[in-house]
Specification:
The complex is a heterodimer of chains A (75) and B (189). Chain A is mainly α. Chain A has four helices and one strand; from the N terminus they run αβααα. In chain A, 60% of the residues lie in helices and 4% in strands. Classes of the chains: A mainly alpha (75), B mainly alpha (189).
Chain lengths: 75, 189
């Protein structure tokens, strides 16, 4: 939807398809925009499992959140 | 409010497998659904994997502590992005204020030779490093915009709301950011 395709005409689409095929045959990757490249990069980037472990530890060690003073009045 | 967060969590649960059973239920669903997006934003915005780990940890901890501030009209994704952007900007500015001279973004970006042909990658081995070097060459605002709009779930309007500008302003800046990124990326070969 957001993606702006440079190759809007049929001839250009054929040209793009041809380039992608050539690129694929040569083992190369081709991206039409930086966003496309970043999406590929994001998909290849794994979240280190260490973060979830650290989060769990931080939550266990942190005190429970303080209740607002006014909430006591309502109870 | 609580019900909206429960709904967000339910939506998140439906799109993500349970990967973090160690976390409390209300955070686990959010983490499973959005940790990749938040970690990637932090990684490429800060340019350092250790800082990105710390930032992702801090963002989700803040989110858990401020679940009651989550507003029904916001999506969980944009809410987490907002926390992440503020956090990463603070982390970055602390270092950059000490080490980098400020320059006008527009002047800077005009000096970068643009590129508008498709980005062709022959070697994927060091692709992450090349992307990082190209992003590092962009002004922070352009880098952030590119990272936000690369998330297909975010509209230009949402990216604009997250960065305090209109969708039209986002479009205009993205045009320049794309050209500058392509030019910088070509130089990394």
């Amino acid at each position: 939807m957001k993606q702006q395709n440079k190759f809007s005409t049929g001839r250009h689409q054929e040209q793009a398809a041809g380039e992608q095929t050539a690129a694929a045959n040569s083992g190369a990757l081709e991206f039409q925009s930086p966003e496309e490249l970043l999406r590929h990069d994001a998909a290849q980037t794994a979240v280190p499992p260490e973060i979830a472990r650290r989060l769990s530890q931080s939550i266990a060690e942190s005190p429970p959140p303080r209740r607002p003073w006014w909430r006591k009045l309502l109870e | 409010m609580e019900s909206s967060m429960n709904q967000a969590c339910t939506e998140a649960q439906s799109t993500a497998a349970a990967e973090s059973p160690l976390l409390p239920a209300e955070l686990s669903a959010l983490y499973d659904a959005y940790s990749r997006a938040i970690y990637y934003l932090a990684l490429r915005f800060l340019g350092d994997s250790q800082k990105a780990e710390d930032a992702t940890h801090d963002v989700f901890l803040k989110a858990l502590r401020h679940l009651d501030q989550f507003r029904a009209e916001a999506s969980a994704r944009t809410w987490l992005y907002r926390i992440a952007i503020n956090h990463c900007k603070n982390v970055r500015s602390a270092w950059h204020d000490r080490h980098v001279l400020p320059s006008s973004d527009n002047e800077f970006i005009e000096r970068i030779p643009g590129g508008d042909s498709p980005l062709r990658i022959l070697e994927t081995k060091e692709l992450g490093d090349r992307i990082q070097r190209a992003l590092d060459g962009l002004p922070a605002e352009y880098r952030l915009l590119l990272l936000l709009v690369s998330d297909q779930e975010l509209s230009y309007q949402e990216a604009g709301a997250l960065t305090g500008q209109s969708a039209d302003a986002v479009r205009g800046k993205l045009f320049r950011a794309r050209k500058a990124f392509a030019g910088l990326f070509a130089k990394t070969e």
